[in-house]
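Structure first, sequence second, as always.
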């Protein structure tokens, strides 16, 4: 069993073995969930695609279709290849 310590600011240090197991690093967000029986569960927060949807949108610029994105990637990669 791993033990964490609560600081005077209410912060908890998550033991390294738990951070490694959950694959969380500095700056990672976690959710604390209270189950029906009172058990508290710590879950790593994973980014959902809906959380970042629209982040790359540039006003006045039309969205690109996946095919267009693939074509541009191919052009850039081809241009970088020595002939």
């Amino acid at each position: 069993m791993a033990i964490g310590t609560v600081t005077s600011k209410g912060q908890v240090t998550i033991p390294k073995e738990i951070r490694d197991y959950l694959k969380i690093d500095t700056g990672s967000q976690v959710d604390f969930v209270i189950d029906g029986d009172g058990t508290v569960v710590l879950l790593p927060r994973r980014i959902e695609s809906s959380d970042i949807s629209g982040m790359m949108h540039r006003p006045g610029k039309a969205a690109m279709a996946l095919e267009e994105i693939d074509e541009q990637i191919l052009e850039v990669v081809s241009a970088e290849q020595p002939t």
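Margin note: The chain has a mean pLDDT of 84.
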